[in-house]
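Re: the request from the purification team.
They wanted to know what the chain is likely to look like in 3D before they choose a buffer screen. I agreed to run a prediction and write the result into the notebook, where they can find it.
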Amino acid sequence: MLRLMSEVLAGRRPPIELAGHSFLPVAAGALYWESEDTLLVADLHLEKGAAFAARGMMLPPYDTRSTLQRLAACLDHFAPRRVVALGDSFHRSELAGRLNADDREELVALQQGRDWYWILGNHDPDLPESVGGFVCRSLIIGGITLCHQPSLSRAPEIAGHLHPVARIARRGEGIRRKCFATDGNRLVMPAFGTYAGGLNVLDEAFSSLFHWHLMEAWLTGRTSVYPLQASLLLPD
């Protein structure tokens, strides 16, 4: 814990180690796998605003644009040859074919010159060809399974679905942030989507996924990511 925090305070961003591989967590909620030149994102939930509007719940309809712009910034920085989206990329499957022209053009531009994989999620179990790239249920790279829902039947793995957040106390106040949750054998990604919510990593849904004496929550800040041991985390 002290070593990790001293590295952060010294301005260095330590990598997340998983099954012998190193990953760089990004404050925006992405994960860069340098040895594979691959950027991972989870739970974009594109068009969530449109889905809510269809149910009479009015939200500003700019979540897709905002999410794609933040993703574009990550791609500009790392210029990866491969992108893997770990499911629930669209808030509903049918919305994938209803992107407005500008957002569709932006998505096409982001895919240019690189391999792009859409892993199917519970919100988007089917995707049309118009989304581009490759559609699959899971992907194995470097011996690590990339999937949407974490499962005890496979490891090592990187998954999404649960939208992990962590809460800590600082100067007498509670701070609640999206986080990467890992024990070195399994990693659950934060939700990247602008309108995506979060579930506290101390919730029962996470209890069987990690060896808790090894578990770390990497909290996302504005520009950095801060690793903390599970013993420092608070329930909601």
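For the purification team: Residues 2-9+18-232 form a domain with the Purple Acid Phosphatase; chain A, domain 2 fold (CATH 3.60.21).
Please add any questions underneath this entry.
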